[in-house]
């Protein structure tokens, strides 16, 4: 590579010879030597193609490719389309007026770091309040994954040669929550929901089936079979259908739910699919004085209770709808009661055919 940095302007310049002809280009968007070298490689490739009569592939503005290619694909194929739209707004803003080839790995790394550092501002005009919250590592990684998908589609369309996101590392996450609702916490939570029948029923169903929030919101009466006592989950996170058995609590609960249409839990306001119950759930958690509890922890609690009752990991895997047993392992960590039983087994020693319990620490060998 033959890039250099001009002393007068501070701009990087590509300066090389091809077939005796000197070619000089100012690299306006290059910030570092590595970016300059990557840009020069593109220029050299274009010169080579022109010299041999190849038609250079046209570069495309990033925002145009997102609007014309990626978002239509997302709308047609992804359930997360709304989320993708929100992410793409941030991506288009960050890479405004840049072409796909001008967006390099170092630029993406800079974007990733700035996205994490810059807080999101929430303003309440009525209360005249302003709240700033930082994005989580999971959210930033999601932005990078969407960006990588955009570039992969550009590679498939033969607009660019490689995906620059391949050299950008995701943030390492430590999101294996182990929050389990205790029996007492469950009691006070349900008591706090006495005046909100809808959310109370949803919470009970989540605790006794391990269903995700979205799976509960999508549940229709056609999916509930009271004769065989099963629930058919039509729309799961993995896209696969699965069957979840109903215990007596769930069966009685659903039999007493007032039917207001095809959906088991329709929105009281619109009659259509529920969008969210976060505010009602958070209010009940706060009134019950329960710390650090999210709705998804109900699924975690359900799986943990099944494991503690003796269910094996593969059975729980089928109930939860996981495609990888390693995911299920997160929900089958050792609970207090399981740990207690395991430790208490250390008190037991077998001598011949006689089982001797040694709770007091006596010398068994002298008996």
Pairing-aware structural class of the strands and helices?
Answer: alpha+beta
Q: Per CATH, what is the topology of the largest domain?
A: hpI Integrase, Chain A
Q: How many strands, which pairing sense, and closed or not: the largest β-sheet?
A: 3 strands, antiparallel
Number of helices: 14
For this structure, what is the CATH homologous superfamily of the largest domain? Intergrase catalytic core
- Cα Rg: 29 Å
Q: How many domains comprise the coordinates?
A: 3
Enumerate the strands of the largest sheet in spatial order, edge to edge or round the barrel.
1-2-3
Beta-strand percentage range: 5-15%
CATH architecture of the largest domain: Orthogonal Bundle
Low-confidence stretches: 350-367
Task: Write down how many β-strands occur, each being a DSSP E stretch of 2 or more residues.
Answer: 10
Average predicted local confidence, pLDDT: 83
Judging from the principal axes of the Cα atoms, what is the shape?
elongated
Helix content: 40-55%
Compact overview of the structure:
Helices cover 45% and strands 12% of the residues. The chain has three domains: 3-51, no CATH class; 62-167, DNA polymerase, domain 1; 183-333, Intergrase catalytic core (hpI Integrase, Chain A).
Main traits of this protein?
3-stranded antiparallel beta sheet, 14 helices, 45% helix, DNA polymerase, domain 1, hpI Integrase, Chain A, disordered C terminus, 367 residues, 3 domains, alpha+beta, elongated, 10 strands
């Amino acid at each position: 590579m033959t890039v250099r940095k001009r002393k007068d302007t501070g701009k990087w310049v590509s300066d090389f010879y091809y077939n005796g002809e000197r070619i000089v280009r100012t690299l306006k968007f290059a910030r570092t030597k590595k970016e300059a070298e990557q840009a020069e490689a593109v220029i050299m490739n274009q010169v080579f193609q022109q010299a041999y009569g190849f038609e250079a592939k046209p570069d495309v503005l990033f925002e145009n490719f997102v609007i014309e290619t990626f978002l239509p694909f997302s709308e047609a194929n992804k359930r997360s389309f709304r989320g993708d739209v929100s992410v793409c707004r941030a991506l288009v803003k960050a890479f405004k007026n840049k072409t796909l080839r001008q967006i390099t790995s170092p630029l993406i790394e800079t974007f990733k770091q700035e996205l994490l550092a810059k807080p999101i501002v929430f303003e309440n005009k009525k209360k005249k309040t302003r709240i700033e919250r930082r994005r989580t590592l999971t959210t930033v990684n999601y932005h990078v994954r969407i960006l990588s998908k955009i570039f992969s589609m550009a590679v498939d369309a033969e607009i660019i040669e490689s995906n620059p996101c391949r050299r950008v590392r995701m943030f390492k996450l430590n999101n294996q929550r182990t929050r389990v609702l205790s029996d007492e916490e469950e009691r006070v939570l349900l008591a706090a929901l006495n005046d909100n029948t809808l959310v109370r029923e949803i919470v009970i169903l989540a605790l006794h089936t391990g269903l995700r929030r979205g799976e509960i919101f999508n549940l229709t009466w056609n999916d509930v079979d009271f004769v065989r006592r099963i629930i058919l989950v039509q729309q799961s996170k993995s896209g696969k259908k699965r069957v979840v058995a109903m215990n007596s609590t769930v069966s009685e609960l659903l039999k007493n739910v007032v039917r207001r249409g095809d959906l088991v839990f329709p929105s009281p306001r619109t009659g259509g699919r529920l969008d969210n119950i976060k505010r009602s759930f958070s209010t009940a958690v706060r009134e019950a004085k329960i710390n650090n509890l999210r709705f998804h922890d109900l699924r975690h609690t359900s799986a943990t209770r099944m494991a503690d009752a003796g269910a094996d990991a593969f059975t729980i895997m089928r109930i939860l709808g996981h495609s990888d047993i390693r995911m299920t392992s997160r929900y089958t960590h050792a609970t207090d009661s399981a740990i207690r039983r395991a430790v208490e087994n250390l008190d037991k020693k077998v001598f011949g055919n006689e089982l001797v319990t040694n709770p007091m620490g006596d010398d068994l060998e002298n008996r």
